[in-house]
Q: What sequence folds into this?
C-alpha cells in the first residue's frame, strides 16, 4: 500500500522527530513463538479471546473484521467493512446474553457493533473524536484518538465518562494508537515507534516502556507504513502477542525487566506480563 501523497510529509516529520528522541530506560523482550500473519492486513485492532485472534484491518476499500487461527494465521471468519469507512481499533464487550465486537472508524465518528459469533452487524455508536485504538477494563471502553488523551466510555452509549492525559515525566505522550488492558494497566502502541507504553488508568502516568526494536527487521517490512501496531493478551494462559501493520509475522513475547535484562536472559524469563505489571500510514 502506498501512502496518500498529501500525508507523506507527515511521515517524514514523524521519522525525523523519532530520530531526535532521547534514549529511554525500557523493558526489553524475548520471543517465545512466531506465528504467520497476513501481510496484506493493515492491523488497527487486535484481541485474543476464547482461543482465537480477532483483528480489525484498515484503509478505505480494504477494511475488514476477521477471526483467525493463531497457529496457522488462517482466516476463519471474515466481514468486509463498507468501502467508505477506514476501520480502526477493536474491543469485545459482553452484556448479559449480548456478546459483541466493537470496531472503531477513523474519522467517521461512529463505531460498528457486531454479534461476535456471527459477525452480523447490529448497530452503530457515535463519538466526536477520531478513533484510533480501543480496549476495555471490564467496566468501560477505553479509546485513543492519536493525541495524549484516553477516553473512558459507556459501552452501551459511547458517552464519555472521564478522560486522562497520558504523560511521561510531565510531558504529554501523543500518537497513542492500538490499546490493550493487561493486569490493571493500559498498554499502548505509539504510532511510528517500536515502543509500547504502560499507562496508569487512574492518572495517565506512564509506568514504564517496552522497547520492541528489532522485533521485525526493516528488511522484512514491505513499506514505510509497516509499523508496529497490535497488542493482544491471552489472560487464561498469560500470553502476550504483538504484530504490526502489513507484517508477515505475529509474535508471542515475554517481557524482560530493564533492570534485570541480563539476568532474565541467562536464568529464564518470567511469565509474559508479570514483570511489566510488578496514522497515515495512510495516516496512522
A:
Amino acid at each position: 500500500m502506498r501512502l496518500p501523497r498529501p500525508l507523506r510529509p507527515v511521515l517524514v516529520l514523524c521519522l525525523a522527530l523519532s530520530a531526535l528522541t532521547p534514549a529511554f530506560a525500557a523493558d526489553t523482550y524475548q520471543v517465545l513463538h512466531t506465528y504467520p500473519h497476513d501481510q496484506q492486513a493493515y492491523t488497527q485492532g487486535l484481541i485474543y479471546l476464547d482461543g482465537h485472534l480477532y483483528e480489525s484491518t484498515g484503509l478505505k476499500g480494504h477494511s475488514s473484521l476477521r477471526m483467525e487461527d493463531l497457529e496457522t494465521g488462517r482466516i476463519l471468519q471474515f466481514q468486509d467493512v463498507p468501502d467508505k469507512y477506514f476501520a480502526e481499533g477493536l474491543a469485545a464487550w459482553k452484556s448479559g446474553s449480548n456478546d459483541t465486537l466493537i470496531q472503531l472508524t477513523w474519522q467517521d465518528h461512529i463505531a460498528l457493533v457486531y454479534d461476535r459469533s456471527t459477525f452480523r452487524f447490529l448497530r452503530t455508536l457515535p463519538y466526536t473524536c477520531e478513533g484510533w485504538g480501543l480496549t476495555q477494563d471490564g467496566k468501560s471502553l477505553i479509546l485513543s484518538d492519536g493525541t495524549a488523551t484516553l477516553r473512558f466510555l459507556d459501552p452501551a452509549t459511547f458517552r464519555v465518562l472521564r478522560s486522562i492525559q497520558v504523560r511521561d515525566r510531565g510531558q504529554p505522550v501523543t500518537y497513542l494508537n492500538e490499546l490493550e488492558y493487561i493486569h490493571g494497566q493500559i498498554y499502548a502502541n505509539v504510532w511510528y515507534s517500536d515502543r509500547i507504553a504502560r499507562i496508569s488508568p487512574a492518572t495517565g502516568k506512564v509506568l514504564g516502556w517496552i522497547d520492541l526494536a528489532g522485533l521485525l527487521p526493516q528488511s522484512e517490512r514491505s513499506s514505510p507504513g509497516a509499523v508496529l501496531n497490535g497488542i493482544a493478551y491471552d489472560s487464561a494462559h498469560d500470553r502476550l502477542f504483538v504484530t504490526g501493520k502489513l507484517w508477515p509475522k505475529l509474535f508471542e513475547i515475554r517481557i524482560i525487566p530493564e533492570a534485570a535484562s541480563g539476568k532474565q536472559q541467562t536464568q529464564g524469563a518470567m511469565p509474559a506480563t508479570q514483570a511489566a505489571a510488578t496514522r497515515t500510514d495512510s495516516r496512522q
Observations:
- DSSP finds three helices and 22 strands in the chain.
- Residues 1-10, 12-23, 262-271, 274-282 have pLDDT under 50 and may be disordered.
